[in-house]
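Hi R.,

As promised, here are both runs. First protein below:
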Amino acid sequence: MPVQEIADRLEIEQLLIRYCHAVDGRDWDAYRAVFTSDAVIDDVTAGPGNSVEEMAAFLAGAFERVVVIQHAISTSRVKIDGDTATARTICHCPVVLRRGDGETRLFFQGLWYDDELVRTSDGWKIAHRAETGYFHDMPPDFSFERGLEEGEQS
């Protein structure tokens, strides 16, 4: 493998890791930094065609009921073609939700990140991200869009 490809693969791996740490740490500036300014994000819970700013705002609101979240990525398949690349990465993500009345609930979600990446003057960035193959065991009365259903205490 050529040295440049090794360097690119390591940089892309670190980019994907920085994304996870930014989301889990609710560091929305670090979150913005992993994407191109015109990136498009197709998120399972927020819907398709979101900008980085729209997603940062959505996640900040959605996480109001999240006690802790831990993105764990693995088995990335990366294909590099000059200054562009694609990556398909598994993500398993346990989430602890506030249920109200001091109660919490752990649930798990899993998905694939399908990314289109570009080399920029600031290094590799995500230009398009789609979440696919989503599964979870989230409580049926909870959604990130609505929070707790009417009738439950916050």
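And here is the second one, sequence first, then its structure tokens:
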Amino acid sequence: MDYIKAFIIGGIICALTQILLDRTKLMPGRIMVLLVCSGAVLGAIGIYQPFQDFAGAGASVPLCGFGNLLWKGVRDAVDQEGFIGVFMGGFKASAAGISAALIFGYLASLIFSPKMKR
């Protein structure tokens, strides 16, 4: 049941993002920034964590989940380090995910030999 719930919630987030892409003149990069910032803001006001606890991977995998992760890292680092935690917290919290994306992306490029678009 957890898989179905994550699939449905993640699908709704992706569908809303696709509607935003289709119905507005916003560029994809700006929509990605909007998703990350909305996850951070919703995390800051305490809404995103209960939603993520309910939805599981359906809420933690999309970009708004990444924004919430950055917010939690900054909050924890500020509690421990003070003001300098504003600059360190996001990097510490997201380091494993970003490193994994880089490593697996590199391995995939070795296996599948990517071509440049023309």
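A quick note on the second one: The CA atoms of residues 15 and 47 lie 20 Å apart. Let me know what you think.

Best,
J.
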